[in-house]
Design goal:
Signal recognition particle alu RNA binding heterodimer, srp9/1, 2,3-Dihydroxybiphenyl 1,2-Dioxygenase, domain 1, four-stranded mixed β-sheet, globular
């Protein structure tokens, strides 16, 4: 069996602004809005979908994005915070260091230095 990830989809009660936020921070583009019920964003790293739901599952999201950068990690995290993300925590394990952030609707994601 051969499989590939076609899209990662996020549930949202208001997917349009969330999709536009992710398109902006990932230097992507909203390519379909489907009357606001399913929004598709293409980025250099892959495709994200944002689908409208009546209520999101409470608690911590079970799947999250791990983003990497070649740039200064603190500056990138600061830029995401300035764009509307919130800081969940800064973590380190050995030489590895990363920031856990949440997007404007509370979906957690991590940013680490690639390498």
């Amino acid at each position: 069996m051969t499989l590939a990830i076609g899209m990662i989809t996020v549930d949202s009660t208001d997917p349009v602004p969330l999709a536009h936020w992710w398109a902006r921070v990932l230097e992507g583009e909203v390519v379909a809005e489907n009357e606001g019920w399913f929004v598709v964003v293409t980025t250099p790293a892959g495709t994200l979908g944002f689908q409208r739901v009546d209520a999101v599952t409470p608690g911590k999201n079970k799947v999250h994005l791990d983003l990497t950068t070649h740039e200064d990690l603190a500056l990138v995290a600061g830029g995401l915070l300035a764009a509307g993300a919130t800081l969940v925590g800064e973590r380190a394990e050995g030489a590895a260091r990363w920031f856990t952030l949440a997007d404007p609707q509370g979906n957690e994601f991590c940013v680490a230095h690639e390498g």
